[in-house]
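Let us work through a complete example step by step.
Step 1: write down the sequence.
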Amino acid sequence: MKIGRNQPCWCGSGKKYKKCHLYREEQEQIKPWEAEQSFKKAFGAKYCSVPDTLKKECNGNIVRAHSVSKSMNLKKIARDGHVYAFIPSIENLTKNHGVLRPELYGINKASTFTGFCAYHDKQIFLPLEDQEFIGSKEQSFLLAYRAQAREHFTKKSSSKLLDFIKQADRGKSLPEQFHIQNMASAHTLGTDAGVRDGIIYKNKFDAILTSQNFTNINAYILEFKKTPSVLCSAGIFPECDFYGNRLQDLFDLEMTPDLLTFSTIVTKKGGAAVFTWLNDNDSKGNCEKFIDSLKAIAPDKITSSLFRFFFEFCENIFMEPRWWESLDKSKQDSLIYRILNAAFLLEVKNPNCLLDDNLFFDDWELINSRELK
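Step 2: predict the structure and record it as tokens.
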């Protein structure tokens, strides 16, 4: 279709065609350093994530807060102060021919985000950092609060990349421009919905933090004999359970999905995986269904099932060097593909993504499981 120079551009930017996509295929393509610069700027925001009512207490600089604690967790699995992590960078992708492979990464930087001031990063999480983990509702909530704060920080930062993403078709052919703009539009819709839902859950979590009322906190805790070889922290809207049953449709952007947070941690007994969710009037019961499917897994398959889940739905993940290096290449590649899917949405999640792939990754030896309601 022929578009007049002064007509609105076909991409939906609201600009005139002559100020937007006219001659776009002749423009200089985006340089790798431009992408790196935009990414660092978007994710370089610094603020304290606490409720407005607590901001008067803020003290000290905004710090690189660890979503997976350094002293209590990362140090326990590190080798010479390093763990394996997936670091998204143009340099990494170029070096590995477009594949994001894990690299050794210092624990001082691993899992950090600039989302708390020095005072609140220490004060809020004292029951986690300075006390033995006993699996209380308060400790389960604080793991969830930290995970949710990081997820909201990430979603807000991603939204700042949208304008840059729409420029990714510079120097491309017209069919490529259509493809890139369609993907950018879909990404915009999803990101906007994610930010909106993040605000909704932030308000709920903030209310619990300020009231110290943990009545609506539910948690399912798996305790292990061994220290977990993988540590992670994240919050997701579960799309399917471990048996491939669809739980909620994330393409329905009018709906606010149920949120599930999860963390693996080191404990005095060995380790634990903690799943936390809200049981309030807005809950649709999807997290409970997910947990029911987890309960049905045989104990000797729990650890490998968790690996499939963690790598499929979380990029904030850190690995013990000895464990990662001990895996054969087929197992490493299987997990790398899952993390790529989590980070870049290589394909739409299918309801079978958590089903048993007959690969054994590790066994942390389950010793106990319990649910907090």
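Step 3: interpret the result. The chain has twelve helices and ten strands.
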